Amino acid sequence: MFYANDRTMVFIDGSNLYAAIRSLGFDFDYRKLLEYFHNRSRLMRAYYYTALGDDQDYSPIRPLVDWLAYNGYTVITKPTKEYIDPISGSKRTKGNMDIEIAVGMLEMAPYYDHGVLFSGDGDFRCVVQAAQDLGKQVTVISTLKTHPPMIADELRRQADVFLELDDIKDELVRDGNSLP
Questions:
Q1: What are the tens digits of pLDDT across the range 83-118?
Q2: How far apart (Å, rounded) are the C-alpha atoms in residues 1 and 148?
Q3: E strand or H helix at 15, and its extent?
Q4: Rounded distance, CA 55 to CA 22, Å?
Q5: CA angle, corner 39, sides to 35 and 42, nearest 5?
Q6: What does the alpha-carbon distance between residue 83 and residue 21 come to, in Å, rounded to a whole number?
Q7: Rounded Cα distance, 59 and 54, in Å
Q8: What is the rounded distance in angstroms from the CA atom of residue 164 to the CA atom of residue 21?
Q9: 79 strand-pairing partners
Q10: 59-64-65-69 Cα dihedral, nearest 10 degrees
Q11: What whole-number distance in Å separates Cα of residue 120 and Cα of residue 45?
C-alpha cells in the first residue's frame, strides 16, 4: 500500500490517537512511527494536532508536544475553550482540531502523493474524499478492535486503505527504555 517513491505526509489527530492506543493498551513510540513511514515511502512531513490548555503553566501533554516538535514533527496546537454544559451546568473544556486537520490535508495536497490520517472520526470522510478527488491516495489508521470501535464506518469505507492500528502495534510499541 506504500510505494518507495510516494511523497507521504502523516496527519495525526492527537486526542483520537491517544484514545485509540490507550484502549488498545500499549505505549506508543513516536520515533518508531517516523521510521515506519521513512522505511516505506518518502516521508515529507508528519503533523501532530492537539489542543492545549493555555491557562496552565504545565499540561500533561506539554512534554510530548515539546518532544515531538524537536524530533521531526510539525506540531499544530490551539488553546482549549471552556464552556458551561447547558444540561449539567458543569464546566467543560473543548479542543477540537478537525478543521485544522482538514485544512492542513487540503493545503498540503500539492506536496504529497499519499496522505495518512491517524483518526477514526467520521467527520473526516469529506476531507478524505476531497483529497482523493485531487488524485491523492489516503490511508486511514485507527482501530476496529476496541469496544466500541474507534473508527467510524463511513471513514473506513471512504479511505483507499484502512490500516488497523492493532495490526501494526508491534512496530510502533515503545521499548521500556526509549523516549516517546
A1: 788 888 887 777 789 999 999 999 999 999 999 999
A2: 27
A3: helix 14-24
A4: 26
A5: 100
A6: 28
A7: 9
A8: 12
A9: 52
A10: 150
A11: 20
Where do the DSSP E strands lie in 67-127?
Answer: 73-79, 81-84, 91-94, 114-118
Cell readout for 37 is 513511514
5 with 40: CB under 8 angstroms?
no
Count CB-CB contacts under 10 A for residue 179.
12
Could you give the angle at the alpha carbon of 145 between the alpha carbons of 139 and 146, nearest 5°?
A: 115
pLDDT tens-digit series, residues 125-154: 999 999 999 999 999 999 999 999 999 999
- CA-nearest of 10, 65, 74, 79 to 42 is 10
Question: What is the β-pairing status of strands 114-118 and 7-13?
Answer: parallel
- Look-up of cell digits 466500541: 148
d(CA 126, CA 168): 26
Given a contact cutoff of 8 angstroms between Cβ atoms, the answer to whether 26 and 64 are in contact is: no
Domains and CATH numbers, the chain: 7-172 (3.40.50.1010)
pTM of the complete model? 0.91
